[in-house]
Design goal:
single chain, 210 residues, mainly alpha, 80% helix, 0% strand
């Protein structure tokens, strides 16, 4: 049976697994943005927190994904549902590029622009919301773009703990030694990563300061 025929015969399950994959990536990226952007702002304005925050995010990136899932399984509440555990782990992996790019984007703003804002009587919050974040938006989106692509790939590993997603086909294909089943999960995952990269990249280009 060809790959195309297999996909056509299992299209309903493929769509379901793709939806699960998108949910895992989408919600974990949202949490990572809600946590990572404020942390990036914090380390940009408070150098004291720079080393501990960035070092912690770097250490998380070095932990193999399967090992992290294994470490988190005994954690109360998280280990009760595979979906929660997967979302938590994916959020942790997505933090580094978002924190780093937020920090880089804000620190890269011309000091003369900030001084002009202060001379106009802008408060620190006004400077952040009206000057820093708009000017750093394209750099921050670049970090989110990297985080999304990382999450799409890592979400396939979540199937190993029963969290669903396109990794179900990949692990099933490995168990059956069937390349068609592996590709039925791997190709849509790769296409999702490329699509996400294109969409966020388009936003990034259009938000570059002119």
């Amino acid at each position: 049976m060809s790959l195309l025929r297999f996909i056509l015969q299992n299209h309903a399950q493929l769509l379901e697994l793709t939806g699960e994959h998108l949910w895992l990536v989408g919600i974990s990226t949202l949490f990572a943005v809600l946590i990572g952007v404020p942390l990036g702002i914090l380390v940009a304005h408070r150098p004291l927190f720079n080393k501990p925050v960035l070092t912690s995010a770097n250490i998380i990136q070095t932990i193999p994904s399967l090992a992290l899932f294994g470490f988190l399984l005994p954690v109360p509440w998280l280990g009760d549902r595979a979906e929660r555990l997967a979302i938590f782990a994916l959020t942790l992996y997505a933090l580094l590029p978002i924190i780093r790019n937020t920090f880089t984007g804000i620190r890269g703003i011309d000091p003369a622009v900030m001084e002009s804002g202060r001379a106009m009587g802008m408060t620190q919050w006004q400077l952040l919301l009206q000057v820093e974040l708009p000017l750093a938006a394209s750099v921050i989106l670049s970090g989110i773009r990297t985080a999304v692509v990382i999450s799409v790939g890592l979400a396939t590993i979540a199937a190993a703990i029963g969290a669903g997603g396109l990794g179900e086909f990949i692990f099933r294909g490995l168990a059956m030694v069937d390349n068609r089943v592996i590709l039925a999960g791997a190709i849509p995952a790769a296409m999702l990563a490329l699509l996400a990269d294109f969409i966020v990249g388009w936003l990034e280009r259009h938000l570059q300061p002119r």
